[in-house]
Write a structure and sequence with these properties.
The protein has 2 domains: 2-172 and 212-238, Rossmann fold (3-Layer(aba) Sandwich); 175-209 and 242-326, UDP-galactose 4-epimerase, domain 1. It is built from 11 helices and 13 strands. It has helices at residues 11-22, 42-45, 60-67, 82-87, 89-109, 143-162, 184-194, 214-226, 246-257, 294-300, 308-321; strands spanning 2-6, 26-31, 50-54, 72-75, 114-120, 165-171, 173-175, 200-202, 208-209, 211-213, 234-238, 244-245, 264-266. Helix 6 links the parallel strand 5 (114-120) and strand 6. Helix 3 (60-67) crosses helix 5, helix 7 crosses helix 11 (308-321) and helix 9 packs across helix 11. Mean pLDDT is 97; it is low at 328-332.
C-alpha cells in the first residue's frame, strides 16, 4: 500500500510513518517542517520505501502531486496549540479546516480510497458524563476543538458525496518518545528530570486527563487505515480509558526521576500568568477528561497495551538521550 502521511515529521505522524514503513508499505512523509522535525524521521528517511516531501497542506497543487498513486492518506498535519487557536482563530481555522478540505479534495482527485483523520477529544469540551463516549455532546471549550470537529464533519461529507472511507481518531493526551515540548507531561519531565526542579501544578491537581501512549495510538490507527472501516465515516476515541489526576502524574515523574522533590502548587487565574513557570494558564481549562474506548475495542479488537508508568518511563529515557530536542522556544 502507498500511504501519504501529512505531518509525517511530527510527533504522532513520525511514529505512524515509521510503523507503516517497517511493515513494508510505501510511505510519503509530507510536512512543512514548521513544527515537525527531520530528527523525527531521519532514521527511516533513507529506507527505499520512504520519501520525504516538504509541503504545506494549504498548497493544494503540491499536495496533489505528492498524493499521486496513493491508496490511503493519514492526515496528521494540524495547528495543535490551544493557546495559539485562542489568540488567532483565523489561522487555526485555515490550517485545520481549509487544510483538511484540501487533503480531502486531493484525495478525490487522486482516487484515494481511505483517509484517516487526526481529530481530538477537544471536540467534546467539558464532560457532562464520564467516561465520554463518541455520542457525548460536542461543545468545544476552545477554537481548536471547533476546527477539529469541523474537519470531522467534512470527512463525513466527503464520504457521503464521493464514497471515500474516512475515520476520525479523537485523541486523548498522547505522549511518548518525540513528544513536542509544551504539554503537561513534558513540562513536568523537563523541570524534574532535566532541571531537577519541582513540578508546578495549576490548581489543586485533582483535574484528570486520559493519557495514551503513542505506539498504542499507532496500532489502532493502522488497523483503521488497513482495514475495511469508515464506509460512511466513523469516529473513534483513542485513550487509555483511565482518568489520571494531574497531581498523580507529577508524583509519578518525581518517583521515576529518583529526585527528592515535592510538587509546587500555583493557582493563577484562567488565562493568567504563572510567575513560576513563566507561562500563561489556558482559559476554560477542562476539569475532567476520560474517554470510553469500548467502540474501538468492540469493532477492531484493539485495546491499549501500555500502562502510564511504563510509557512515562520510556519518554523519560528518550528525553535523557535527546536533551537538545527540548532546548527550543517553549510553545505558549
Amino acid at each position: 500500500m502507498r500511504v501519504l502521511v501529512t505531518g509525517g515529521a511530527g510527533f504522532i505522524g513520525s511514529h505512524i510513518a515509521e510503523q507503516l514503513a517497517s511493515e513494508g508499505h510505501e510511505v510519503i512523509i509530507y510536512d512543512d517542517f514548521s513544527t515537525g522535525s527531520m530528527d523525527n524521521v531521519k532514521h527511516i528517511a533513507s529506507m527505499g520505501n520512504v520519501k520525504v516531501v516538504k509541503g504545506d497542506i494549504l498548497d493544494l497543487a503540491t499536495l496533489m502531486h505528492a498524493m499521486e498513486g496513493c491508496d490511503a492518506v493519514s492526515h496528521q498535519a494540524a495547528q495543535l496549540e490551544i493557546g495559539s487557536a485562542i489568540k488567532d482563530p483565523v489561522t487555526d481555522a485555515r490550517i485545520n479546516i481549509e487544510g483538511t478540505i484540501n487533503v480531502l479534495e486531493a484525495a478525490v482527485k487522486r482516487n484515494v480510497k481511505k483517509v484517516v483523520y487526526a481529530s481530538s477529544a477537544g471536540v467534546y469540551g467539558e464532560a457532562v458524563r464520564l467516561p465520554q463516549d463518541e455520542e457525548h455532546p460536542k461543545k468545544p471549550s476552545w477554537p481548536y476543538g471547533v476546527s477539529k470537529y469541523a474537519g470531522e464533519l467534512y470527512c463525513l461529507q466527503y464520504s457521503q458525496f464521493y464514497g471515500i472511507k474516512t475515520c476520525a481518531l479523537r485523541y486523548g493526551i498522547v505522549y511518548g518518545e518525540r513528544e513536542w515540548f509544551g504539554r503537561v507531561l513534558t513540562m513536568f519531565i523537563k523541570r524534574v528530570v532535566l532541571e531537577k526542579k519541582p513540578p508546578v501544578i495549576f490548581g489543586d491537581g485533582n483535574q484528570t486527563r486520559d493519557f495514551i501512549y503513542v505506539k498504542d495510538v499507532v496500532e489502532l490507527h493502522n488497523i483503521l487505515l488497513e482495514g475495511d472501516y469508515g464506509r460512511d465515516f466513523e469516529a473513534y476515541n483513542v485513550g487509555s480509558g483511565v482518568a489520571t489526576p494531574i497531581k498523580d502524574l507529577a508524583e509519578l515523574v518525581i518517583e521515576l526521576s529518583g529526585n527528592a522533590l515535592e510538587p509546587l502548587y500555583e493557582n493563577p487565574p484562567e488565562g493568567g500568568y504563572s510567575s513560576i513557570t513563566g507561562r500563561w494558564r489556558i482559559p476554560k481549562e477542562l476539569r475532567n477528561l476520560q474517554l470510553d474506548v469500548s467502540k474501538a475495542s468492540r469493532e477492531t479488537g484493539w485495546k491499549p497495551r501500555t500502562g502510564l508508568r511504563e510509557g512515562v518511563e520510556r519518554e523519560i529515557e528518550w528525553v535523557k538521550a535527546n536533551r537538545e530536542r527540548w532546548n527550543v522556544k517553549e510553545r505558549v
